[in-house]
């Protein structure tokens, strides 16, 4: 198997995370570069939280590094390291893509929620007027909640053990979509049309379930944003109970058009 044809003219992109073993973006985007004839490569870079600022500033000072993708746990922290936030990143307080503007300023946006909603719609799962339960108010959860509300979801109920993070997200969502985002109670999980795990739980075999699929309505869709493993314990358990499931890879696949426009890949 041969890899990308890398030369002195190749443009570089990095996906930053801790860990990075689970990232799927290089396997999706490097073949895209090859199909487009784009002389570029995306590589994973493991960065501990205490080194994020140094790595972001260092990489983006390199003349042939054109941008970054950002995954757990850095999506909130990266927002403080850029000069400008896009509309979704400003609402959610998180970002998963960074590029350098012509003037050298760093600009960040979040495409997680857009990809998630597009993935649901592509699978024939309606969003408008839906009641949605989201576990997790971090980078993915905030983006998913905002995109669902923008797409017309009637109600988004969020749960997160970090009450300060949850309160901050709900306040930002209320500024844009008053009365439609709430702290989740037991009735929200039981009554939801779509149930979403937007936490990292499920990436490791020893992780507990982020929620009990037995508490989910029999016809509700159970979705996960975790991409590796493809079949998380949550989705496996939900499917065994007869619940329809929606895999995390759809979120990444449906982000690609947004990335192409953001980074200018043609």
From TrEMBL:
Annotated ranges, domain Shikimate dehydrogenase substrate binding N-terminal: 15-98
Presence of the UniProt keyword Amino-acid biosynthesis in the record: yes
InterPro entries assigned to the protein according to its UniProt record, in alphabetical order: Aminoacid_DH-like_N_sf (IPR046346), NAD(P)-bd_dom_sf (IPR036291), Shikimate_DH-bd_N (IPR013708), Shikimate_DH_fam (IPR022893)
Organism: Streptomyces sp. R39
Residue intervals passing through the bilayer: none
GO MF terms, alphabetically ordered: NADP binding; shikimate 3-dehydrogenase (NADP+) activity
GO terms under cellular component: cytosol
GO biological process per UniProt: aromatic amino acid family biosynthetic process; chorismate biosynthetic process; shikimate metabolic process
Keywords annotated in UniProt: Amino-acid biosynthesis, Aromatic amino acid biosynthesis
Pathway stated in the Swiss-Prot or TrEMBL entry: Metabolic intermediate biosynthesis; chorismate biosynthesis; chorismate from D-erythrose 4-phosphate and phosphoenolpyruvate: step 4/7
Protein's name in the database: Shikimate dehydrogenase
The keyword Amino-acid biosynthesis belongs to this UniProt entry's keyword annotation: yes
């Amino acid at each position: 198997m041969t890899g990308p044809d890398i030369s002195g003219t190749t443009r570089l992109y990095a996906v930053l995370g801790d860990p990075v073993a689970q990232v799927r973006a290089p396997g999706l985007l490097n073949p895209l570069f090859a199909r487009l004839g784009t002389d570029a490569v995306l590589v994973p870079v493991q960065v501990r939280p205490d080194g994020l600022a140094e790595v972001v500033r260092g990489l983006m000072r390199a003349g042939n590094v054109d941008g970054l993708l950002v995954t757990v746990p850095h999506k909130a922290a990266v927002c403080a390291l850029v000069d400008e936030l896009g509309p979704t990143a400003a609402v959610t307080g998180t970002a998963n893509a960074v590029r350098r503007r012509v003037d050298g300023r760093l600009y960040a946006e979040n495409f997680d929620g857009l990809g998630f909603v597009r993935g649901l719609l592509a699978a024939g799962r309606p969003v408008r007027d839906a009641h949605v339960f989201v576990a997790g108010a971090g980078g993915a959860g905030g983006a998913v909640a905002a995109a669902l509300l923008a797409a017309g979801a009637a109600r988004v109920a969020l749960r997160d053990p970090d009450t300060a993070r949850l309160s901050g997200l709900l306040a930002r969502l209320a500024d844009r979509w008053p009365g439609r985002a709430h702290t989740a109670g037991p009735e929200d999980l039981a009554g939801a049309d779509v149930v979403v795990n937007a936490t990292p739980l499920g990436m490791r075999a020893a992780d507990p379930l982020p929620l009990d699929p037995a508490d989910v309505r029999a016809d509700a869709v159970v979705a996960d944003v975790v991409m590796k493993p493809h079949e998380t314990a949550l989705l496996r358990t939900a499917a065994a109970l007869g619940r329809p499931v929606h895999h995390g890879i759809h979120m990444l696949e449906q982000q690609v058009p947004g990335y192409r426009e953001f980074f200018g890949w043609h």
